[in-house]
Amino acid sequence: METVTYETDVIAWAQEQVRLLRAGQFSLLDIEHIAEEIEDVGKSEKRELRNRMSVLLAHLLKWQYQPERQGNSWRRTIKEQRKAILDCLDETPSLKPDMQDPHWWERVWADAISAILKEVELDGLPESCPWAFAEILEPTWLPGEKV
Fold first, then answer.
1. Residues 97-129: tens digit of each pLDDT
2. At what angle do helices 10-22 and 31-65 cross, to 10 degrees?
């Protein structure tokens, strides 16, 4: 039987690593690649949070800067992203410190601005996020509207 490696078939490799773990055959484990995969799980969670936040911010910006195009679709996206972000933070509390990291916010904001500018030319967009974190996730808050 051919030996499955991380490089040749990651799924078959993972299944083999699970089998070895459950069988208590620890000396046969591919520790280095297992460690990489565990690190990647954390990176994936962080990436999901960042992507969801940038989508939310982009839609809040569109809501504020394109009032003539406001509609249920944007409102629904804003609501869905808020819920997904809160779920993500609830399921993975260790991501909460990222929300206090100015560098993280700069990257998220840059992603949001980039997404908007791919769709439409808008002038006067802020260089940094003008809203407080609590506002952004407030279920009923929308820029330019009274809560």
1. 988 899 999 999 999 999 999 887 877 889 999
2. 120
Select from 47, 147, 29, 49 the least CA-distant residue to 96: 49
**pTM of model > 0.70:** yes
Taking CA atoms, 69 is separated from 3, 18, 40, 75, 96, in Å, by: 57, 51, 39, 11, 33
Largest Cα span, the chain: 68
| 124 φ/ψ sector (left φ>0, alpha ψ -120 to 50, else beta) | left
Three-class DSSP category at 142: coil
Q: What is the pLDDT of residue 1?
A: 57
- The 3-class secondary structure across 1-61, one letter per residue, is CCCCCCCCCHHHHHHHHHHHHHCCCHHHCCHHHHHHHHHHHHHHHHHHHHHHHHHHHHHHH
Nearest to 82 by CA among 132, 135, 139: 139
Residue 57 near residue 108, CB atoms below 8 Å:
yes
Ranges of residues in the chain with a pLDDT under 70 are: 1-2, 145-147
State residue 147's pLDDT score.
43
